[in-house]
Amino acid sequence: MSVQGFAGDGYEGVTELLTRFVADGQETGAGLSIWSAGAEVVDLTAGWSDAARTEPWRPDTLVHTYSTSKPFAALATLTAVASGALELDRAVAAYWPEYGQAGKDETTLRDVLTHRAGQPVFPPAAATVDLVDEDALREILAAAPPETRPGTVLAEHALTYGHLLDGVLRAATGQPLGHWFNDVARPALGMDAWFGVPTSELPRVAELEHGLPGGAAQMLAEVCPTYDRALSRPHGAMDMDRINSTAFRQSTFAAINLHTSARALARFYSTVTDPDGPLRDLLGEKLHTEFVTTQVTAVDQTVQERVNWTLGMFRTDNFIGMGGLGGSAGYWSFTNGHGVAYVTRRLHDHGRIGQIAFGMGDNLIKAV
């Protein structure tokens, strides 16, 4: 198993790092892409995309990226806002009346986008619901009271984020979140990414695997203990048989199941803040500015750190972007002016992207 591709001048060190990850068993399949000044300056692949280790990882390999997905769930929603179908500071219940019960009548779309809707965890009723039963999960959220008063407490909505946004979009526009991303935002940006992978693209999707012998339980205990409760319902969010199933790949679980490539993710982040880039063209000046500007700074009760959230991403003075459970991540470095994405099939911590970033002089510490 070898590392393939290229790294341009000044980026040679990332090839050495990825080669070491493979050699010492940290990595079994991954892609790394870096874009600067409109061009891809690093395009590296390592390992295999399948558990049988017969299919090499390719530049267009798609992979499930967990919370790396969240900015794109937000983007789908903001695309509808840009169309005039939604307003950020209007109550969700104005569009989705069923949601206005149990103390949620004043929750705004901005509250949801900034993880302050008070529903960071699916209610107990979701414990027996199938992971891909999108309708039932939305209905459970609509009926449940918030854990905290909406708009007052910051807590990453680890699994609920996409279903809340999907509920608003369906009620307001008659179209699901998948439509607003796949059919509107994705083609406008020329992005190779999907919520609900089309059958024609399934052969490109990598199979995830746990990187720790204890699987999900060890992952939660050692890598992300603060997420234990947030990921507890519905069952299956860390079950590789479910996550690798066609049913899940073709569903829209938008908080966690964007399937994309390293190249597509890095290219997106390389222009995410551009005042004349494709994202500005899609959203318009005001909305694009809101998307990439800090909206709330507080101790996030899920992350257990003081962080800045934009309308869907982490932001510091050094970077803007988002990582996901298991090690995938994408970001724009304000320090060094490049868009970076590392996507992996081997679920572990963020040590791999952390080492890559550190080697380039990027600081990915999100606490502020």
Description of the structure:
The structure is a single chain. This protein has helices at residues 12-23, 70-82, 109-113, 134-143, 161-173, 177-189, 215-222, 240-243, 246-249, 262-270, 278-283, 285-292, 351-360; strands at residues 3-7, 29-36, 39-47, 63-64, 193-195, 209-210, 258-260, 296-300, 305-309, 314-315, 319-323, 329-333, 338-344, 346-347. The strands form four sheets. A seven-stranded antiparallel sheet has the order 1-3-2-13-12-11-10, sandwiched between helices. Helix 1 packs antiparallel against helix 13 (351-360), helix 2 packs parallel to helix 5 and helix 2 (70-82) packs across helix 6. The chain contains 13 helices and 14 strands. Strand 2 and strand 3 form a beta hairpin. It is an alpha+beta fold and 368 residues long.
Q: What is the domain tally?
A: 1
Portion in strands? 15-25%
| Number of helical regions | 13
- Give the name of the CATH superfamily: DD-peptidase/beta-lactamase superfamily
CATH topology heading: Beta-lactamase
Q: Helix/strand/pairing class, anyone?
A: alpha+beta
Helix content: 25-40%
Q: How does the major sheet shape up? A: 7 strands, antiparallel
Please tell me how large the radius of gyration is. 19 Å
> Strand tally, please?
14
Q: Outline, from the CA principal axes? A: globular
Mean pLDDT: 97
Low-confidence stretches: none
Helix-strand string = EHEEEHHHHHEEHHHEHHHEEEEEEEH
Keywords: Hydrolase
Protein name: Class A beta-lactamase-related serine hydrolase
Domain Beta-lactamase-related: 16-349
InterPro entries: Beta-lactam-related, Beta-lactam/transpept-like, Beta-lactamase/esterase
